[in-house]
Specification:
disordered N terminus, Beta-Lactamase, Heat Shock Protein 90, five-stranded mixed sheet
Length: 727
């Protein structure tokens, strides 16, 4: 979880605001300051210690509001916190005024006291950013405010003091609903929001636990004298938790904070349970002198529980210094590296921290980490800094190194002599960093010749660190490959979207062109034919000779119209392609070409779905037309169709003057060809240069050969006279 939180926390600063650019900082600060002013006036007016403690709590909420408003100025969390602060201040001020004999504030005191659990419910349902994201939450908060106003009015003025039971029940109901909403949001929240919710929950639970502890101490020992005031003072941790939840860096440590808090609170609870058992076992309430001793002993035990972690850490350091001298335990390097890996520290920083930790833990003169691939290694980090260096391994050296573990000077002199260059007579150990038999790097450490030799424990630590570094480097490679794949997929998706749009646009344009051709060509001819037929009908009896002459003209006009319709249909989808396949259709097109065309269709080329053959046909036709326009009158064309390795391929080559392929690749014709092929999973290659002719290649994936090929449909029209062998 720490890894996830770290990555999310690093991007928390980039989260767009939810307030549509409208800053809520100033209203929140005004409410917070208003609450502090009212609380201070109440404390100054009444003068009691409880009022000053309450004023300090209100100040803490105001400070928390200020921190949240600064970090999340466009989110309503600070505004809700400011509202809670001003309600607390106003409730405290009206209470002090009533106690001072000012009866006009009695109703306001009742209403404001009832509003405290309502605003707390609002906070609970709005965390972590202050928004009420569901209709149910908004309805619940609205009803909570209405219920609070109703409760305040119903209780009404009570000069003698407010009855606690109605407000206590309201607080319990608000707490239960708020807890349910909080847990529901935790289950649905993102990693960053979940960490922020954990901070807020930590503050509330810690304050509640301390309050429960105080209540229990008061019940057992009648201590402290003012448990309510102590409980109120402990609630300052709640606004502090709200402020901490907005600091991205603190999101990464909430796991450790929760663990330590659970341990400390658990130990304190255990201490109280033990003392409760003792008190119950005694069967009586402790006397005054016994009570003081019991309180002091409980405080001492609680203090020991709180200081357990830092004391344990410090004592371990002292013990390590006594046992290992000035260095730390060797295993500390492993634990440190593993902990930093779990927090998703950048690789360069992680390796540098590893080198520093190794140097300290193993009492080294130098520590280095080399990384690379395919036998080419670079010194990535070194402590002290020695700059970059290169080491190349190949052949047998690479194979031996990839299988090695931790080796010393003698082995290095044989297989990696370059690694020992410039190190003199120092003790050197190299741990091979590998993963699945692939050499990924080295961990190299040095000691002076007169220092203690490396031990088996040192080698074990180096081997374990090398294994962890190998896994980390492998994961980095996987992440990089995954990121590259995602970028390629995104680019491909964008290309497909653009291609789809171009195809749709081209289809619309083709339909408009067909409509124009039919309207301006065949349709006009048919209208003229209809007029001539009418004239012939009129002349058939009156002027037979003229009618016969017009009938001869009509026969020619009908033939012309048929030829025009045939040409139009051929441009839409050639019947020859449908009936006899790709080879026959290309032969016909080659015969109509303005340049000599050599058509080569390799053996094994099968019939394929109509969309595949059409894509190949029209791409070849486009390439032939481009060659006819730009290759020159003396150029020759070669069209090759092959099928192999599950692909149907074509190539249109000419010996013309060629062109700049990079500049022409985005031309309209090539874009259309790419779109046609891309729609069925194919690709297009353009290979040309000035003076070197040109080659247009296409590849389309096709399925395995099938037993039943598409049957050719006999054409009902007369055979096309251009269906002759290609030259």
């Amino acid at each position: 979880m720490s890894t996830t939180l770290t990555s999310v926390a690093s991007t928390e600063r980039a989260i767009p605001p939810t307030g549509a650019g409208r800053s809520l900082r100033m209203p929140a600060l005004v409410l917070g300051i208003g609450g502090v002013v009212l609380g201070t006036l109440a404390a100054a007016d009444h003068g009691g210690v409880a009022y000053w403690v309450s004023a300090v709590v209100i100040l803490a909420w105001a400070l928390g509001t200020g921190v949240v408003a600064r970090r999340l100025p466009d989110r309503p969390l600070a505004l809700v916190m400011g509202l809670f602060t001003v309600v607390l201040g106003a409730a405290l001020y009206t209470s002090a005024s009533v106690r001072s004999g000012d009866d006009q504030f009695e109703l306001a005191r009742s209403v404001l006291t009832a509003l405290i659990p309502a605003v707390a419910l609002h906070l609970a349902l709005a965390v972590p950013d202050g928004t009420l994201r569901s209709r149910g939450a908004r309805l619940t908060v609205g009803l909570g405010y209405l219920a609070a106003l109703g409760l305040g009015v119903v209780v009404g003025p009570e000069p003698a003091g407010l009855p606690m039971l109605p407000y206590l029940l309201a607080a319990l109901v608000a707490g239960a609903i708020g807890l349910a909403g909080y847990l529901s949001r935790c289950r649905k929240a993102s990693a960053a929001d979940r960490a922020r919710l954990q901070w807020i929950g930590w503050g509330v639970v810690l304050a509640a636990s301390f309050g429960g502890l105080v209540v229990l101490l008061d019940a057992l020992l009648d201590w402290p004298d003012r448990p309510g005031m102590v409980t109120i003072a402990a609630s300052v941790v709640v606004p502090a938790a709200f402020a901490a939840s907005t600091v991205p860096r603190l999101l990464t440590v909430i796991d450790r904070v929760l663990v330590r808090t659970v341990v400390v609170v658990g130990l304190l609870a255990l201490v109280e349970a033990v003392y409760l058992f003792v008190v119950v076992g005694l069967g009586r309430v402790p006397e005054e002198e016994e009570r003081s001793v019991l309180v002091l002993s409980m405080l001492a035990a609680g203090l020991c529980a709180v200081l357990m972690f830092p004391a344990r850490h410090r004592l371990e350091e002292v013990a390590n210094q006594r046992v290992y001298g000035e260095r730390h335990r060797p295993d500390d390097a492993i634990k440190t590296f593993a902990g930093r890996m779990s927090r998703a520290v950048p690789m360069d920083e992680l390796l540098l921290q590893l080198a520093e930790s190794l140097k300290k833990s193993l009492t080294l003169t130098a520590s280095e980490v080399w990384t690379g691939a395919a036998g080419s290694l670079e010194r990535t980090v070194s402590v002290p800094d020695r700059g970059s260096a290169h080491l190349s391994l190949e052949g047998e050296e690479l194979g031996v190194a990839a299988r090695a573990h931790v080796q010393g000077n003698a082995w290095l002199q044989i297989w990696m002599p370059g690694l020992l260059a410039g190190r003199g007579d120092k003790q050197v150990r190299a741990a091979v960093v590998a993963h699945l038999g692939e050499l990924l790097g080295l961990i190299v450490v040095e000691r002076r010749s007169d220092d203690p030799p490396f031990t088996e424990e040192d080698d074990r630590v180096l081997a374990e660190l090398a294994r962890q570094v190998g896994l980390a480097l492998h994961n980095v490679r996987l992440d990089s490959a995954l990121q590259a794949s995602l970028e390629q997929l995104e680019e491909r998706n964008q290309e497909l979207a653009a291609s789809r749009l171009r195809i749709v646009t081209a289809a619309d344009e083709s339909r408009r062109q067909i409509e124009r051709n039919l309207h301006d060509g065949a349709q006009q001819h048919l209208v003229a034919l209809a007029v001539k037929v009418g004239l012939v009908k009129q002349l058939i009896d009156a002027d037979r000779a003229t009618a016969d002459e017009m009938l001869d003209q009509l026969r020619g006009d009908v033939q012309d119209t048929l030829e025009e319709l045939r040409e139009l249909a051929h441009g839409i989808y050639p019947p020859l392609l449908r009936d006899r396949g790709l080879e026959a259709a290309l032969k016909a097109s080659a015969n109509r070409s303005t340049l000599p065309v050599e058509l080569v269709v390799a053996e094994g080329v099968r019939r394929h779905p109509a969309e595949t053959e059409a894509a190949i046909y029209f791409c070849v036709l486009e390439a032939m037309q481009n060659a006819g326009k730009h290759a020159g009158d003396d150029a020759t064309l070669t069209v090759t169709i092959t099928e192999a390795d599950g692909e149907l391929r074509f190539e249109v080559a000419d010996d013309g003057p060629g062109f700049d392929a990079a500049a022409a690749a985005m031309g309209h014709g090539f874009v259309n060809m790419r779109d046609r092929l891309g729609a069925i999973g194919g690709t297009l290659e353009v290979d040309s240069a000035p003076g070197e002719g040109s080659r247009i290649r296409g590849h389309v994936p096709v399925g395995a050969a099938e037993d039943d090929e598409p049957e050719a449909v006999e054409a009902v029209a007369e055979p096309d006279p251009v269906d002759a062998p290609a030259s």
